[in-house]
Amino acid sequence: MDLLLPLAMALALLVDRLGEPPTWAHPVVGMGRYLSLFKLTRLPPAPGFMAGALAWLLGAAAVTLIALWLEGWVLLALQPWVSPLRLIGAAALIGLLLKPLLAWRMLADEAMAVEAALSESLEAGRVRLSRLVSRDTSALTEADVREAAIETLAENLNDSVIAPLFWFAIAGLPSAAIYRFANTADAMWGYRDEREWCGKWAARADDVLSWLPARLTALVLMPPSLVTVAREARRTPSPNSGWPMAAMALRVGVRLSKPGVYSLHAGGQPVEAGALQAARKVAGQAVMAGAVLMAALAWALRMAP
Q: What is the pTM of this model?
């Protein structure tokens, strides 16, 4: 049983190489459909916050119960503590259930698709990037497009890979599912406009659940100095996303910026052709390091008396 979660993580990452499950069977798509049922509107702070919190809690409760039922069914049906063969079977099934909650291949493919589009034209690169970011891409330069793609790759390395694995190591499938629900809710409800109070709970929940994983993501990116990463991360408005972005900037040796908002590793080289490929390679190494770290964490937690 001590090896169940580490084996499940390994299998989930292997299956991830095959791509994403169909839309009808994808739990994150289902989460998004639930969240899209609620049309956030302008409300006073207290009613808006309470309404958003209640809708979030109902969704989180449903996600938790479904994940608990699925994980419990696997454990009850296969009883992995009985034999090594049953252990492998249970790890395989739980790994298949974990896979849709992480998405390394899709993230890497989307980042490299921006580079491929740039090889066609700047406009094609802008259009491809617009699928990944919420900012207006119509006036971005070629360097700006690559910077934004690297930032997205670094930030989502935490959101789509390291954080789900971390929470899976902590408490299995239910906590990984809750994290993905929280992260999806923040992406869909975390507005900074008149609807802000309706999405405030979702934004804060994601901040809390991403706090430690974001810093672990910075660690497995292996930057030259975590002290420098901490200093650079404070330049961004987010309490978490600056950590993997700053770590990536320092590791690859480039400057990453969002005009008028932040500049990370200002003394680094300008982003040129080849930088996105280098960031993709570094991120791939971080996935492997992160998987080993989270597997060790899962094993250690279950070996503790």
A: 0.96
